[in-house]
Write a structure and sequence with these properties.
The protein is mainly alpha-helical. It has helices at 2-21, 23-49, 56-74, 77-92, 97-111, 138-155, and strands spanning 115-117, 123-125. The protein has a two-stranded antiparallel ribbon with strand order 1-2. The radius of gyration is 20 Å and the shape is flat.
Amino acid sequence: MNKFLDALSDKLLPLANVLGSNKYLAVLRDAFMLSFPITMFGSLIVVFNNLPFFSDDTKSFLYNLLGNGQMATMSIMTVFVVFGIGYYLSKTYEVEGVFGGAVSLSSFLILTPFFMETEKGEVINSVLSLDRLGAKGMFLGMITAFVAAELYSRMS
């Protein structure tokens, strides 16, 4: 068994070193770590709202009281990740990180649609839908943040 583990570690250790030293993966890791406390807080609210020994009335009361906390944390996670990518990528190029984060966030918001469709099919303009700031917009946000922070860092 030890021979197998030694052979496996001989094969995987170089790959792990390459992946660990990649600046884009390190930036992505740090950006998600920036949003980790927000995710934990939202998760605790979800668990607290759904404890099995609470009555349905208590659960309803807690959801009305703390439901916005869940929406305010989980539904805007992309905002924190996008800012974190811009910040940490700018720091790797040794330029001002806050401005890189602001440029990345602004670029993401430019690409985010400012309209939403109601259940009846009506289009409402000039609103920012929260679903695009959550998991639904994460992939667009990550790509936008990397491109915007790269451009900002190189232009600086």
